[in-house]
Amino acid sequence: MKHHIHNRAATAMLCAAITVIITGCSPDRTEVGSKDTASATKGKHPFDTMTPQQIDNQAREAVKNTTSMRLTGKANSDGRQVEVDLAMDVHGSCNGTVGNSLGRMHLIKKGSLVYAKAGEDFWRATFSRGMTAEQTEEFVSLFKGRWIKPPKLMSETLGRICDGLDVLIEALSAESDGNPTREADATVGGRPVAVLAERTTTRTTTVYIAKEGKPHLLRATIAGGNEPVDLTFTDHNKPVDTTPPPPDQILDPTTLR
Q1: Considering its fold, how many domains does the chain have in total?
Q2: Given a cut of 70, is residue 32 above it in pLDDT?
Q3: What is the CATH number of the domain that holds 118?
Q4: What secondary structure letter does DSSP report for 226?
Q5: Is 249 among the domain residues?
Q6: Distances from the Cα of 153 to the Cαs of 24, 26, 104, 222, in angstroms?
Q7: Which residues pair with 81 in a beta bridge?
Q8: 3-class SS of residue 219
Q9: How far is C-alpha 232 from the chain's CA centre?
Q10: H or E stretch including 206?
Q11: Torsion angle of alpha carbons 181, 182, 188, 190, nearest 10°?
Q12: What letter would DSSP give residue 250?
């Protein structure tokens, strides 16, 4: 894959997460290696007869048909590290967390409904801008440990994080103009993978493609340069749990001064 594309897609999505945390928001057709039954020649995998580019194309085809996945890992953008553990689908639904050094926020989104929950450190960093220390602590005590149903502007900003899967799929499935090489096979989460790498003078991008079942992308890393990325992809095509929080745990900020 043209793997600076991975960097663009991942950091674009995680950059949105940075904005939220910092500001507080003022192919399924191709089953390569399925069950390894294609290994008819005594353990030989179909990938072993393919060029790296052909393996790459198989993974791209699988990405195009992915309807949901869970992203776990971290990226660095503008000197800030962002961590993400977020299940998303192509309809914009999501459930999971994003965060950086200022704190972590848990998001649940389905349709236009967004719920958010964050720890004391996040709310303290948010409210300390423009409030006295006493006012800040008053609001922290109201928000800590509770879900909020954000007002429209904040909901739209948070919702853009959950819309990131479409951007990611588009980037990951785009035609390659790179020249990947195949490295030694490895495992990701106990699953055997083919490893493809693409190198420039400043960085190396590596992708890990499942050898069992559909050739899903299971991990992508970018080493070197100014924006390292390490993301793991799981739960492909698994429905995202968008069950809302219990009503008695939800705070409507618009009712506050």
Answers
A1: 1
A2: no
A3: 2.50.20.20
A4: S
A5: no
A6: 11, 8, 20, 33
A7: 76
A8: strand
A9: 8
A10: strand 203-210
A11: 180
A12: E
Cα separation of 210 and 8, whole Å?
22
User: pTM, whole model, 2 decimals?
Assistant: 0.79
| Full residue range of the structural domain in which residue 178 is found | 4-26+29-240
Q: Which residues pair with 96 in a beta bridge?
A: 86, 107
Largest CA distance in the chain: 73
In SS3 terms, 56-120 reads as HHHHHHHHHCCCEEEEEEEEEECCEEEEEEEEEECCCCEEEEEEECCEEEEEEEECCEEEEEECH
Domain membership flag for residue 233: yes
Convert the pLDDT of each residue in 167-214 to its tens digit. Answer: 777 776 666 666 889 999 999 999 999 999 988 888 898 999 999 999
Answer whether residue 248 is part of any domain. no
Do residues 204 and 220 make contact, with C-beta atoms less than 8 angstroms apart? no
Average pLDDT over residues 6-20: 41
Helical residues (DSSP H) of the chain, grouped into ranges: 4-23, 52-64, 120-127, 133-143, 152-162, 164-172
Q: Give per-residue pLDDT as tens, 46-88.
A: 998 999 999 988 998 898 889 999 999 998 766 778 899 999 9
Tokens standing for 15?
Answer: 């950059």
In a domain, 228, yes or no: yes
* Cα–Cα dist 77/84, whole Å: 13
